[in-house]
Amino acid sequence: MATISLDTYRDAYPEIAADYTVPQRWAEYTDEEHAVWNLLGERQAALLPGRACDEFLAGLDMLGLQAGGVPDFDQLSAVLGARTGWQIVAVPGLVPDDVFFAHLANRRFPAGRFIRRREQLDYLQEPDVFHDVFGHVPMLAHPVFADYLQAYGEGGLRAQGLGVLPQLARLYWYTVEFGLLAAPGGLRIYGAGIVSSASESRFALTDPSPHRVTFALERVMRTRYRIDDFQQVYFVIDDFEQLLRETAERDFAPVYRRLARLEDLAPDALAADDRVLHHGTQAYAQARRAGLTGTA
Ligand code: HBI
Ligand code: FE
């Protein structure tokens, strides 16, 4: 991961603290930056009913993130804090893993302060405030998910000493970023990387290309992922209690020992004991590899 050191950030952000936080300086967002937020927020708000899970939509409504410009993190933290004890803190961009985990373990979500430009509405190299806040924060208003993310941060701090971070990062990727839920009304999105993307919020649920497989902890932690394109497999949980049960309440030491003896799986591989909900054609990924389609 292309993380930047404290010293490098200090040139552009002289106020950066040892935990990589910076003041949000909400008053300094321009009208254009607020307009970009609203453009993205309204587009996603129109797309998400019937696609995002009820828990996400309830959080979005409660926090009012669909419009009203880039949110003020202090105001957001006051509302969120009263509900689940989480706070939003501003960071310049990606922060080192240990710093990231320590924030989560203390119920602080680090969010990028900057917002993408209008010319790059659908292309992002680093998570900006729209991805971080619109994508991640609504689920933090859900008490069970809120506990899961804190437990993930605590697990991350333990995993570092064991040299198993790549495996744990896959759990974050395939749940917090790209997770799907088997809701009573059908398949729904809860992953922040999907709900904050217009194209992937369609692709993840209905495109025939990707596999959709029932979540199983070790299966997920063996599976490599793509950071540069739509996922080739999505993992589906039954409910958020399952996520908490399978992670926060589990001793990971035996999991890591078993994983050490197992081969990693490619993003498009299916395993013998998978519960496959949809066997993907992988047509999209193959076309991309052959250069037949444009950029996502
Ligand atoms: N930093 N700002 C920020 N946002 C992230 O999502 C993030 C990070 N640093 C490390 C990191 N994620 C990874 O450790 C996790 O995705 C596993
Ligand atoms: Fe994210």
List the helices and strands and how they pair.
Layout: H1 6-12, H2 31-47, H3 54-63, H4 73-84, E1 87-91, H5 97-105, E2 108-112, H6 129-136, H7 143-162, H8 165-177, E3 180-183, E4 186-189, H9 192-195, H10 198-206, E5 211-214, H11 217-221, E6 233-237, H12 240-247, H13 252-261, E7 276-278, H14 283-289
The protein binds 7,8-dihydrobiopterin and fe (iii) ion.
Reported CATH architecture: Orthogonal Bundle
- Anisotropy-based shape: globular
In total, the number of domains comes to: 1
Summing up helix and strand content along with how strands pair, one would put the structural category as alpha/beta
Strand order of the largest sheet: 4-3-6-5-7
Count of helix runs: 14
Number of strands: 7
In sequence order, what are the helices and strands, one letter per element?
HHHHEHEHHHEEHHEHEHHEH
Poorly predicted runs of 5 or more residues: none
**Average pLDDT:** 94
The molecules bound to the chains, other than polymers, are: 7,8-dihydrobiopterin, fe (iii) ion
Seen as an oligomer or otherwise, the chain set is single chain
- N/C terminus separation: 22 Å
Give the % helix.
Answer: 40-55%
CATH superfamily: Aromatic amino acid hydroxylase
* Biggest pleated-sheet summary: 5 strands, mixed
CATH class label? Mainly Alpha
Q: What proportion of the residues form beta strands (DSSP E)?
A: 5-15%
CATH topology: Phenylalanine Hydroxylase
Tell me the Rg in angstroms.
19 Å
